[in-house]
Amino acid sequence: MYHAATKRAPLRAHVPLAPGAPEEVAIRAASIVAVERVRREISRLAREEQGAREELENGDSNGDRETAGDEEVSSLLIGFYLWDLAKLAEGWEDGVGGVETVPMLPIHRTRSIWN
């Protein structure tokens, strides 16, 4: 997820965004899109793995790979995982737990019913 250059300074300065402000809504919307893209890719990989496993077991695929795996992948869990990872990554200068990552902007701060 990328932010316009003019939107990066407040994030770097940890300036809270007003709840419902266009910038805050845009970040939340982009996060939803990103999580759904991750979910679709995980589902696609699960279908490929299932198809390969079926071909090994049966010598052929049963053709039901279009929906296989979708119901097993939760957008909610992916979102929670990525949020926790982002919070963890904020505290590390050179990646998360020794894993090198690309430079990241700090997470946005917004007062809500959750904080």
Helix-strand blueprint:
Layout: H1 5-12, H2 22-58, H3 75-90
Tags for this model:
single chain, 115 residues, mainly alpha
Structure commentary:
This protein is mostly helical and 115 residues long. It has 3 helices and no strands. α2 crosses α3. The chain starts with a helix and ends in a 25-residue tail after the last helix.
Structural class: mainly alpha
Number of strands: 0
Helix percentage range: 40-55%
Give, in order, the helices and strands. HHH
How many whole angstroms does the radius of gyration measure? 19 Å
What is the subunit organization of this protein? Answer: single chain
Annotation field: number of helices:
3
Percentage of residues in strands:
under 5%
The largest sheet is: none
C-alpha end-to-end distance? 24 Å
Average residue pLDDT: 78
- Segments where pLDDT lies below 50 for 5+ residues? none
In short:
The chain is built from three helices and no strands.
